[in-house]
Amino acid sequence: MGLDLINQYTAKILLATQDGDSINRISKKTGISYAYTHEWITKLEEENIIHRKNGVHVSDQAVQEAFEDLAQTIITRGIDLDTAYLLPNFAGRDYRFTKTDAVFFWTQGGYQIARNQDDYPIFIDVNEDEVEQWKRHFQSYGIETSVEERIQEGQPGIYYVLFPRQDFQTEWVENASVTPLQETVEWMQEYPANFQPALEMIDEIHDLDLDVTYREREVMGR
Q1: pTM above 0.90?
Q2: What is the tens place of the pLDDT at every residue in 152-207?
Q3: 137 shares its domain with 62
Q4: Is 169 found in the same domain as 150?
Q5: Within this chain, do residues 188 and 94 fall inside the same structural domain, yes or no?
Q6: Which of 100, 104, 168, 190 has minimal CB crowding within 10 Å?
């Protein structure tokens, strides 16, 4: 394997690929364009690291594990938000971004509330019988987790808040598994003081005919 195959694209592909994944699904999970994903999978296949038959499969587990070890070493030195939002895709388990993070995705990154670089919880729903596996997954990258509640003390930085669920529906938004739009809107409507402007954004972006107007705009127009 030439050193040209050691790069961010092959790393993300090998970390994200589960047996039988389509190229399109891997593209979504990694945030790499379909064309680039196809190109790098072809190169990995030429090196017998990946093969394609009824989907994509990793042939060389040792190479995949080496990339995982490298990723864990790098990320434990400090994680950025882009990587934090990709990391659940490398767990090989069902999840969805929920609550404030579902709002973040459905507003195309246009709405944030009650988070900063020193205290940045990322909210995800997970299967209730996989909570411990999720904790170990994030711990292997040096990232803290909590269950159902934000970390109350100190400056934890970026961390994950896990919400155990029996079952849940998801939609893919960009490269993330997210609470479906309608469910997200219904949750936001329970907290209008926090999410009225976000509801307006979502209404404009997705043309939902919610008939909402941010109060400040109403006041300014009087």
Answers
A1: no
A2: 988 999 999 999 999 999 999 988 999 999 999 999 999 988 999 999 999 999 88
A3: no
A4: yes
A5: yes
A6: 190
How many of the other CB atoms lie within 10 Å of CB of 136? 11
| Count of domains forming the chain | 2
Give the three-state DSSP class for 181: helix
Cβ burial, residue 16 (10 Å; 0-12/13-18/19+): buried
Residues 6+ apart with CB under 8 A from 181: 106, 171, 202, 206, 208
Cα dihedral 88, 103, 161, 133 in deg (nearest 10): -30
pLDDT tens per residue, range 115-151: 998 999 999 999 999 999 999 999 999 999 999 999 9
Task: Indicate if 139 and 181 belong to the same structural domain.
Answer: yes
